[in-house]
Amino acid sequence: MRSGPQSRQQLAHSTGLDTSTIARTVPALAAAGWVVESVDRPVTPARGRPGKRVRVRHAHHLAVGVKIGPEKLTGAVTDIAGGVIVADSLPLSSREPDGVLGMVAEMAQALTRRGLELVDAADARVIGLGIGVGGHVVEGRLVVDSHILNWRQVDVSSTVARATGLPTVTLNDVNALAAGEHWLGAGRRVDDLAVITIGRGLGCGLVLGGRLHAGTSGSAGELGHLPLLPDGPLCGCGNRGCLEAVVSDQAVVAALRERLPGIDIRDFHDILRLAEAGNPVVLDGLARTGELLGRAVASVVNLVNPALVIIAGEMTSGMDFMEQPLRRATADHTFSAGWSECRLVIDRSGDELWARGAAWLAIRAAVRRPAILSRHIEVGG
Ligand SMILES: [Zn+2]
């Protein structure tokens, strides 16, 4: 699926299954609508028998992703190659869990209908729903703690699955993104990567040795809560001086409001407008933010030595004013060859990024669901 159309021989090689298992499995998967096997293009007789290749029917299997943000829901439908078919967003009037989860279910159902209409194939179907939440999420369902939403012990997947009838999986939003980038995005074939997100919070998802690293209790990658500044501002987590308390969008807004008391600054968009107009205080503030972010990237590089760092999230809209100091600080503070062997990608796609990450999570869960394989593969039979 991730490698494009393959012959049966190539499939046997890439999956490690023997050719007789492949010979039984391909027709079964084709009968179930997952793959088609066809001749790719005319092959000249001189090159022997026309080669058949097996391809996944991407557009016939859709996944829905919803990111629950502090102010809005962002949703998308993708095909199983990860391409976005339709996306939408919905403002939240309250963060009360029951109401929000009801809206998530409604959004997922509306997106399902629109996705199926757009694909317009009689046998198209939705294979699952992925939900991304900022915070500590365990067991693919339970939000243990999200200070951004002010939620504790909320069973997201069970509630939404009951309402929609869709297999539902919930994960920390940044971990969903990291797993998705590794599986279908810029991190394919990269075994060690970090996705660092900047926006309302500062998040980090890690793929180490080819696997998502969630840690012992599922809270790895909380880069935003590195306790860096003993006398720093109060963080949303209740501690003082966390990195997130100086690098998030709200922290930058608060700091620049203090430095520019005569100017009405409501949000990060206002800051960008002032930066574009050349306001020297704002330019200095954004450069400082870029430098702090660069130090954060260097911390991650020094700790886990990744081959790829992807920076994403809402604040990448200000990257024109932050990228240079970010790269300089990263280079200055990375030990030995860690930085020269690491690629930095800045992904500026907006809100859709999060919903896409959540949908990718649903695809990953669906193709890993044992029922799909056991129904079609009888290994060693
Ligand atoms: Zn904190």
UniProtKB/TrEMBL annotation:
PROSITE patterns registered for this protein in UniProt: ROK (PS01125)
Cleaved signal peptide residues: none
Top-rank taxon: Bacteria
Family affiliation: Belongs to the ROK (NagC/XylR) family.
Full protein name: ROK family protein
